[in-house]
Amino acid sequence: MADVLAELEALRAHDLPTHGGRTLAYVYDSGLAEADAVGRAALASFGATNGLDPTAFPSLAAMERDLVALARPLFHAPDTAVGTVTSGGTESILLAVQTARDAAGVHRPAMVVPTTAHGAFHKAAHYFGVELVAVDVDLATMRAVPDAMAVAMDAVADRLVLVAVSAPSYAHGVVDPVAAVAALAADRGVRCHVDACIGGWVLPWSAYPEPWDLAVAGVTSLSADLHKYAYTPKGVSLLLHRDPALRRPQFFASADWPGYTMLNATMQSTRSGGPLAAAWAVTRHIGVEGYRELVATTLATTAAVADLVRGTEHVRLAAEPDASLLAVATDGALDVFTLADELSGRGWFVQPQMAFRDLPATLHLTISAATADGLDDLVVALRDSVAAAVAAGPVVVAPELRAAAAALDPATLDDAAFDGLLALAGLEGAAVPDRMAPVNALLDAAPPRLREALLIAFLDRLTR
Ligand SMILES: *Cc1c(COP(=O)(O)O)cnc(C)c1O
């Protein structure tokens, strides 16, 4: 057994660190060793249980009810509200869209979202045949513009099934004007979903002044991920609906086969009780007061990093943050991709975000409680990284390459063409290069459809 576990540990050698507060995307570290231990123990102990049938494992149904009960006051849910535990933010959003589509039952259903809505809405559009209408945000604040969303809603009025906003958005960390947009949806008799996947376990303990949750009458559903700021192991999100009738189309049953009658509240059928038990245990261990302290630490750290960015030449905040996420842009003396590589070389992982429509390329920083301990080091790392990136200068993508990329129609490319393009982009084989800036700069220059096609071709090869 020890051999196998040692091999498993060795496999992690090239993974990003999940702890230490210096991986500023993907992972969330409370810095509380005991909370981690509680989560791991619960995960292991319930790993083999099956949420397929809550009557066979009543413990799982009980824990799900407890988590919903915990969340309900945090989001000002009315007494009628109901909730479901899902495997993650994407599944919560998929279900919110599917439920809205099926409740409306219209031909060619459409939803209206700001351009900053999470990619999970695009995935839902793709899976469920819902047209996604993305409305530009305000370039100064990066927030949704209610008037523009109203125009978009009216353009698809007879087939509009859902409107969504973020609290906050992943890319820029700002909360959309939830009340204004929800009122527009309510006026039109349409559902409004608040994507609080990342902010759901932060905003309730922050001083954010505007109403953003189920306290807003027009908000019909809300998603909040526990595997983010509730600091629970991966695989748990909550989807709340204002009342049972709104949730009803989410459920699926099939008696059309000779086996057990299939009965599911989520997309998965067999699902491990491990993540649910871990979330139950960690939230209970940390407790509401514990989260209040973690959020205070996180927001103070976010404010400190924001000040650091404001005080550093050549970099700036792309938006004023409303919660614990920062988007950092640069001036022309350097590019964000080179800066990301420089920070990475100094032990700080930040996530590059490509330019989109009129929005600049940025670096995404998710600050968690454990980041507080590294602040002094980050001050030095950022200063040195900016200096190094300025010295190197921005990666230049040759204009003829940019033009060629713009002219390529990904639908016409065959496997060999993708092999060639991936080699050109530096994405060959199973290992990604140490310095990602040249790759990212090229991808950034590619139109979104081509970028998607290239990355799919890359993933396809990675998993052959
Ligand atoms: C993380 C996130 C999601 C998607 O959640 P996953 O758990 O990664 O599937 C959706 N919306 C927002 C705002 C997020 O931050």
From TrEMBL:
Highest taxon of the lineage: Bacteria
Cofactor(s) listed: pyridoxal 5'-phosphate
GO molecular function: transaminase activity
Keywords recorded for this protein, A-Z: Aminotransferase, Lyase, Pyridoxal phosphate, Transferase
UniProt keyword Transferase present: yes
Family matches, as PANTHER family: PTHR42735, SPHINGOSINE-1-PHOSPHATE LYASE 1
Similarity annotation: Belongs to the group II decarboxylase family. Sphingosine-1-phosphate lyase subfamily.
Protein name: Aminotransferase class V-fold PLP-dependent enzyme
Species this chain originates from: Actinomycetospora termitidis
